[in-house]
Amino acid sequence: MIKKLSLIFGSKTKAEEMVYLVSDAKYVVRQGFYLEELPKIEKFCKDNKIHFVKSRFRVLLADENSYSNKGVRIPESDKRPGMYFCYFSKDEQKAWLASYYELMNNDKDLGLLLGYPKCCVDFFCKRFSPNNPNLQLDSTNMFTNLTKRNEDAVLISHFPCSSECEESIFMGRKHLDIIKSVDKDRTEELINNLKRN
Ligand SMILES: [Zn+2]
Question: What pTM, to 2 d.p., does this model score?
Answer without folding.
Answer: 0.91
